[in-house]
Design brief:
GO terms for molecular function: ATP binding; hydrolase activity; RNA binding; RNA helicase activity. This protein is 38% helix and 18% strand. By secondary structure, the protein is α/β, with parallel strands linked by helices. The longest helix is centred in the C-terminal third of the chain and has 20 residues. Bound molecules: adenosine-5'-diphosphate and magnesium ion. The site of adenosine-5'-diphosphate has 17 residues, from helix 3 and helix 4.
């Protein structure tokens, strides 16, 4: 233990920020707001809170808070710092992320997502238990971080003893300083080795394939050093992992060992540790990461970076009022950050899977801040509940489009959260208690009218995890898909999700059951935790949890009360294979001049790609291939969906037919 403690101290002292420890503490004592800029991996996130702790900022039960845009980063950094301080995670050092609180009365260093700190304003508007706040990874410009800027700037005025650190990778520092009334900038010079850039000659049609090829080339021809590959999400990471494993298996003993370490938001925390384990001599590690590895977490030992040039983000169109998850090209600033990850331990190489021309001509210079490309209903509801009435004139670092704010007002009004004067209603106040989208909180509260809160809570909790629920290993995919089919309910995907959870509950939440039914145990456990928390919040806002088992319509009504904007209707065309009479009841009206007995049939066979139109703007959308509505005959006329994803087409994920409600 002695030896380990020593080496941890040595590691801490080897970080670039360490040389500036005392100077930093002096600057913090002198200035209420300080912008700290340093290269990724300098030690900002792990060291700054500890320096403040060592300098006495946590005396008398006060806390130091440090925000992170991503929950994986909050968890992993807190674990690391607990380790460095020789204490157990959740004691002196803890973290708080949505639906998971790993802190205690003893916690003095608290890592949390920016969204969680925002929510703390609801219970303690002055954040009176904090002596210092570090708004970390400020350059990421997430929606919550941007809103936090305005709020912490405000409380700093009447809490002169509060210290604020705005910490950022080497981007945007001037802008932050200007926003905080010309706060000083503390620049920690980084150590950075040169990185050689390589581009592809032609655009790559399939970047996963290209990435796997590049990994193998590096592995077989390049000197030692780990590889970091940037992908856009869990499915891509899993596909790449499988592809790599197969290829490595085929190569057998001909090549040295390749350790594959994935990292993404939903990866269980005990598996996250794998990316930090030192690579054994003779082997090479390849980390398959989402954007999280761009600046939020640093993996030591990376010498090669592979950058396909894409990121998955949420885009909102205020004209249509629709958000969708989209895979988009990254910005040049982001590409530079990614490449920089290769030059931390020595000279490195970055392989960009796009052309030099594309880099120069097709990428935007900077990533557009989230506040300018996302739905703001949640934020508006939050600001309203904090008593900030003039949302349009809130002190934003960059103003969101006025149109988006107006859309949010419209939605909140339609949901009944705001009245016609734009004031928060009692319903709105209750909705704000829930850390979920206003459309979901409306559905939860509305379910009390139909006495089916029990079922709605389960469905909503399942929706939060629905992306990672089903286990579909490649070698047993047929079995898995067959097992999953058993859960399908005529009420649609929402009821299928409900059915899965209830059967698991009947099986005493067992792991064995998950194994037999090809479900991800960890995801279901998380669903249960989320559900418990939402149920607790129901109690707080006095929603009585009643149950209405085996009934579809009331549950559909409750969900529709929140999700009426996400409804679409089929656009039918005709073809000739099935007798028309089957569909008659569903298309009366549409058929007036066709006549009964005709051989015409509906072609809105959703498995053949028949589309649906959104009610608001006649935009075409399609049922996602993972939906249980695929192949349903006759195809439903009206569908309510949970979210849109844009791939080759705009797909609706998690759909329910709402015929007859
Ligand atoms: P910055 O915030 O400036 O980017 P960090 O404080 O995150 O820098 O990282 C400092 C060092 O701590 C890095 O060398 C990083 O690899 C290490 N580190 C951070 N988290 C972990 C972890 N969970 N396990 C092991 N090492 C970690
Ligand atoms: Mg950091």
């Amino acid at each position: 233990a002695e030896k380990k403690a020593m080496s941890i101290q040595e590691t801490r002292q080897s970080l670039p920020i360490y040389e500036f420890r005392d100077e930093l503490l002096e600057a913090i004592a002198e200035h209420q707001v300080l912008v700290v800029v340093a290269e990724t991996g300098s030690g900002k996130t792990t060291q700054l809170p500890q320096y403040l702790h060592e300098a006495g900022y946590t005396k008398g039960g006060m806390r130091v808070g440090c925000t992170q845009p991503r929950r994986v980063a909050a968890m992993s950094v807190a674990a690391r710092v607990a380790d460095e301080m020789g204490s157990r995670l959740g004691q002196e050092v803890g973290y708080s992320i949505r639906f998971e609180d790993m802190t205690s009365d003893k916690t003095v260093l608290k890592y949390m997502t920016d969204g969680m700190l925002l929510r703390e304003f609801l219970t303690d508007p002055e954040l009176s238990t904090y002596s210092a706040l570090i708004i970390d990874e400020a350059h990421e410009r997430t929606l919550s971080t941007d809103v936090l800027f305005g709020l912490v700037k405000d409380i700093a005025r009447f809490r002169p003893e509060l210290r604020l650190l705005i910490s950022s990778a080497t981007l945007n520092a001037q802008k932050f300083a200007a926003f905080f009334d010309d706060a000083p900038i503390f620049d920690v010079p980084g150590r950075r080795f040169p990185v050689d850039m390589f581009y592809t000659q032609q655009p790559e049609a399939n970047y996963i394939h290209a990435a796997v090829t590049t990994i193998l080339q590096i592995h077989t021809t390049q000197p030692k050093g780990d590889i970091l590959l940037f992908l856009t999400g869990q499915d891509e990471i899993e596909a790449t992992e499988e592809n790599l494993k197969e290829t490595m298996y085929a190569l057998g003993d001909k090549v040295p060992e390749l350790i594959i370490a994935p990292i993404y938001a939903n990866l269980p925390s005990e598996m996250q540790a794998k990316i930090f384990e030192p690579t054994p001599e003779g082997a090479r590690k390849v980390v398959l990461a989402t954007n999280i590895a761009e600046t939020s977490i640093t993996i030591d030992g990376v010498v090669y970076v592979i950058d396909p040039g894409f990121v998955k983000q949420n885009n909102y169109n205020p004209k249509t009022g629709m958000s969708s998850l989209v895979v988009e090209p990254i910005s040049r600033a982001s590409a530079q950050q990614r490449a920089g990850r290769a030059g931390r331990v020595g000279p490195g190489k970055a392989f960009r899977l796009y052309t030099k021309w594309a880099f120069k001509n097709e990428l935007l210079q900077d990533t557009i801040p989230e506040i300018q490309r996302t739905n703001l209903a949640n934020v508006v509801l939050m600001l309203k509940s904090l008593g900030i009435n003039d949302v349009l004139n809130f002190d934003f670092l960059d103003k969101p489009p006025a149109e988006t704010i107006i859309r949010s007002f419209e939605l909140l009004y339609a949901l009944g959260a705001l009245n016609h004067k734009g004031e928060l209603t009692r319903l709105g106040r209750r909705m704000a208690e829930f850390p979920v989208d206003p459309m979901l909180s409306k559905a939860i509260i509305n379910s009390e009218n139909y006495k089916c809160t029990h079922e709605v809570l389960t469905i909503i909790s399942m929706l939060q995890e629905s992306g990672s629920l089903l286990y579909r290993p490649k070698d047993k995919r047929v079995h898995a898909d067959k097992a999953h089919k058993n859960f399908i309910k005529p009420g649609g995907d929402h009821f299928t999700l409900l059915n899965i959870f209830e059967q698991w509950a009947d099986a005493n939440y067992s792991q064995q059951w998950c194994y037999e039914n090809f479900m991800q145990y960890k995801s279901l456990v998380r669903v249960r935790d989320i559900r418990d928390q939402l149920a607790g919040l129901c109690e707080r806002v006095e929603v009585i949890i009643e149950s209405l088992p085996n009934e579809i319509i009331p549950v559909q009504k409750a969900i529709t009360a929140g999700y009426f904007y996400n409804t679409v209707s089929a656009h039918y065309t005709f073809s000739t294979s099935v007798p028309l009479s089957i569909y008659k009841s569903h298309i009366s009206g549409a058929l007036d001049d066709k006549g009964e007995g005709s051989e015409l049939t509906l072609q809105a066979r959703i498995d053949k790609g028949g589309g649906y139109r959104t009610t608001k703007n006649n935009h075409s959308v399609y049922v996602h291939p993972s939906s249980c509505l695929i192949g349903m005959q006759p195809p439903p006329r009206f569908i309510l969906y949970y979210e849109l994803v844009l791939t080759s087409k705009e797909y609706m994920r998690q759909c329910m037919p709402i015929e007859g409600t």
